[in-house]
From TrEMBL:
Signal peptide: none annotated. PANTHER family: OLIGOPEPTIDE TRANSPORTER-RELATED (PTHR11654). The keyword Transport applies. It is found in: Apical cell membrane; Membrane. The keyword 4Fe-4S does not apply. GO terms for molecular function: oligopeptide transmembrane transporter activity; symporter activity. Interacts (via extracellular domain region) with trypsin. Its main location: membrane. Pfam families: PTR2. Belongs to the major facilitator superfamily. Proton-dependent oligopeptide transporter (POT/PTR) (TC 2.A.17) family. One of its GO terms (cellular component) is apical plasma membrane. The gene is Slc15a1. This is Solute carrier family 15 member 1. It comes from Burhinus bistriatus. Electrogenic proton-coupled amino-acid transporter that transports oligopeptides of 2 to 4 amino acids with a preference for dipeptides. Transports neutral and monovalently charged peptides with a proton to peptide stoichiometry of 1:1 or 2:1. Primarily responsible for the absorption of dietary di- and tripeptides from the small intestinal lumen. Mediates transepithelial transport of muramyl and N-formylated bacterial dipeptides contributing to recognition of pathogenic bacteria by the mucosal immune system.
């Protein structure tokens, strides 16, 4: 049965791939935030585990290929590993249900180790599944075509690549939206079970679709694994060379020729070609080390940025969608426009040059990321060290006030109802302060514990200057674009305050509430009940990631008057500033990744494709391991410096690769194959002649 000249079975395979990629990329998109906010790991541990997982996903394909070629065949391998995969996704989803261990129902899991254990089991199963299937699905698709359908086959691989990107695009948009929902049985929090559950469901769909098509597939019997043969051949050559290391044995042209006692000429010639390409792969992992940080470091960078795009609010993990969107646009544009233009300019843009340019662009992307990081760092608050204290003054009275710390410091003037920013002092230097407001003065001793932020409330209430010390117990910028808000009651009597749906405790006169969390980017109604009278006002629109103290001043009629004091400034660097780095990195991917595989296939015989694909995936795995090593060993406290370090490393590797590429000579495997065929024919003729002559000689005797 066929359709548009394609075997019908192809459509099942493409739908299967789409669902599988949706499932994988969706889960991967929210993974680093799940580690950070749900398992409560810090940035570095989250990044480390994320890259360990990705590395595993790219190591297991070698296993999958060997199982498929030597033992189960592609069809059975895909089915059995898909089952493992689906179970892994389901376990992942269960591990993120916080009501599983949340006995006291406060909205955060009580027994974190249970969740960690479950999610690690889930991730290991997923790595086995996705990796094991990866080499089989595309090859199984290729098997469906007859030998005379070369054109359809190559078209199939393009559609296949497109379905991968469509799957990853949709899931990187949808999964973060699911994550941002509120859900839960007893208490509401971010909906990770849904964000992991939908990929699990799609994986199940993918499996069912694949099995339904079962009757139509052409199933090729396992032929034995070429990787195993190649490794044995190399191993034997090395062993044999080592045995004959003394001077009396003649040298051979290439060290692989030492395998000729046991292996035929053809396998040796093919292995030489493969090794030549694999040698060029050695510098490539550095590219993947940078590329795969989109899902870890860049996503964490986005959490400290402002995601307000007017009508829509972008989640940090959604910024990754810029990559698949651009890929879908750029691959056709580069093929149809950019390469022909370069050709017109009489530049010979060889595959190896393309790969070199790809590396250079990726290191540029990291320079861009570092520049953005420097801008972000300017907006991040600086908290006091252990020896210092930070003080901010709020004037709650109607007269202006002047406050003088220690004799040698400048006096600080604060207008009525205004506040200063935080000022940093050495705690040991702060002994007393002197306040002048209206016609009154007051001197107070100071006793502060170091390493903290304090707010000093000053109020001249016509009889005395009241001095109120408040401890500001915010020690970090609010995560995920939330805001922290607290109130100071500037009425003479107690009040009850609600803001939006959140009510604060009853506040005595001139005391402060605790900070409470509010979602970013919106305004809420502030309502105050005082002596059973209520008055209200709508707050200003708060940004993302800020902390404010709101001073409740007076009620005129039903309208409340409030003043705002900013404790931590909101995220002001816009997420759109990440687009340039994503754009440059996507350009790098287009010239690097697409070219890399095509080049490998063009430089080695067709039966060796599996070995090269394994080598290519191995470079991705090693790249992710490099991130672990560099990020672990560098001990750089500044994130921008780490980006610059990666950019510099890749630039160095890029130069090394350019030199290697310069000395590389391109080969045509078909020519070499033809030569081998020719030699074999001649050999057969010689043998025949030899045998005839032998026979003649025998008959004469």
């Amino acid at each position: 049965p066929g359709c548009f000249g394609y075997p019908l079975s192809i459509f099942f395979i493409i739908i299967n791939e789409f669902c599988e990629r949706f499932s994988y990329y969706g889960m991967r998109a929210v993974l680093v935030l799940y580690f950070k906010y749900f398992l409560q790991w810090d940035d570095n541990l989250s990044t480390a585990i994320y890259h360990t997982f990705v590395a595993l996903c790219y190591l297991t394909p070698i296993l999958g290929a060997i199982i498929a070629d030597s033992w189960l065949g592609k069809f059975k391998t895909i089915v059995s590993l898909s089952i493992v995969y689906t179970i892994g996704q389901a376990v992942m989803s269960v591990s993120s249900i916080n009501d599983l261990t949340d006995q006291n129902r406060d909205g955060s899991p009580d027994n974190i180790p249970v969740h960690i254990a479950l999610s690690m089991i889930g991730l290991i199963l997923i790595a086995l599944g996705t990796g094991g299937i990866k080499p089989c699905v595309s090859a199984f698709g290729g098997d469906q075509f007859e030998d005379d359908q070369e054109k359809q086959r190559s078209r199939f691989f393009s559609i296949f690549y497109l379905s991968i990107n469509a799957g990853s695009l949709l899931s990187t948009i949808i999964t973060p939206i699911l994550r941002a929902q509120e859900c839960g049985i007893h208490s509401k929090q971010r909906c990770y079970p849904l964000a992991f559950g939908v990929p699990a469901a799609l994986m199940a769909v993918s499996l069912v679709v694949f099995i339904v098509g079962s009757g139509m597939y052409k199933k090729v019997q396992p032929q034995g694994n070429i990787m195993v043969q190649v490794s044995k051949c190399i191993g034997f050559a090395i062993k044999n060379r080592f045995r004959h290391r003394s001077k009396e044995f003649p040298k051979r042209e290439h060290w692989l020729d030492w395998a000729s006692e046991k292996y035929d000429k053809r396998l040796i010639a093919q292995t030489k070609m493969v090794l030549k390409v694999l040698f060029l792969y050695i510098p490539l992992p550095m590219f993947w080390a940078l590329f795969d940080q989109q899902g870890s470091r860049w996503t964490l960078q986005a959490t400290t940025m402002d995601g307000n795009f007017g009508a829509i609010q972008i989640q940090p993990d959604q910024m990754q969608t810029v990559n698949p969107i651009l890929i879908i646009i750029m691959v056709p544009v580069v093929d149809a426009v950019v390469y022909p233009l370069i050709k017109k300019c009489k530049i010979n843009f060889t595959p190896l040059r393309k790969i070199t340019v790809g590396m250079f662009l990726a290191s540029l992307a990291f320079v861009a990321a570092a520049l953005v990081q420097v801008q972000i760092d300017k907006t991040l608050p600086v908290f006091p060290t252990a020896e210092n204290s930070q003080i901010k003054i709020i004037n709650l009275g109607t007269d202006n006030a002047t406050i003088k710390f220690e004799s040698d410091l400048q006096p600080v003037n604060v207008m009525s109802m205004e506040s200063t920013g935080y000022m940093t002092f050495e705690t040991s230097q702060l002994k007393s302060l002197h306040i002048t407001s209206g016609n009154k003065t007051k001197t107070e001793p100071i006793k502060l514990s170091g390493g903290q932020r304090h707010t000093l409330g000053v109020k001249n209430n016509k009889t005395d200057i009241i001095v109120k010390w408040l401890l500001d117990n915010v020690t970090s910028k609010p995560e995920e674009g939330n805001n922290l808000i607290r109130f100071i009651n500037n009425f003479p009597d107690p009040v009850n305050i609600t803001m939006g749906d959140t009510s604060f405790e009853t506040l005595m006169s001139l005391s402060d509430s605790d900070y409470k969390l509010f979602p970013g980017g919106r305004k809420d109604k502030i309502m105050v009940i005082r002596n059973s009278m209520n008055c209200s006002v709508t707050s200003k629109v708060f940004g993302y990631g800020s902390a404010y103290t709101i001073i409740i001043n007076e009620c005129s009629g039903e309208t409340l008057k409030v003043a705002y004091s900013e404790d931590i400034s909101p995220n002001t660097v816009h997420m759109a500033w990440q687009i340039p780095q994503y754009f440059i990195l996507t350009c790098a991917e287009v010239v690097f990744s697409v070219t890399g595989l095509e080049f490998s296939y063009s430089q080695a015989p067709s039966n060796m494709k599996a070995v090269l694909q394994a080598g290519w995936l191995l470079t991705v795995a090693v790249g992710n391991i490099i991130v672990l090593i560099v990020a672990g060993a560098s001990k750089l406290s500044e994130q921008w410096a780490e980006y610059v370090l990666f950019a510099a490393l890749l630039l160095a590797v890029c130069i090394i690769f350019a030199v290697m590429a310069y000395f590389y000579t391109y080969v045509d495997p078909n020519e070499i194959e033809a030569q081998l065929d020719e030699e074999e024919k001649n050999q057969v003729k010689k043998d025949l002649n030899f045998n005839e002559n032998q026979a003649e000689a025998d008959s004469r005797m």
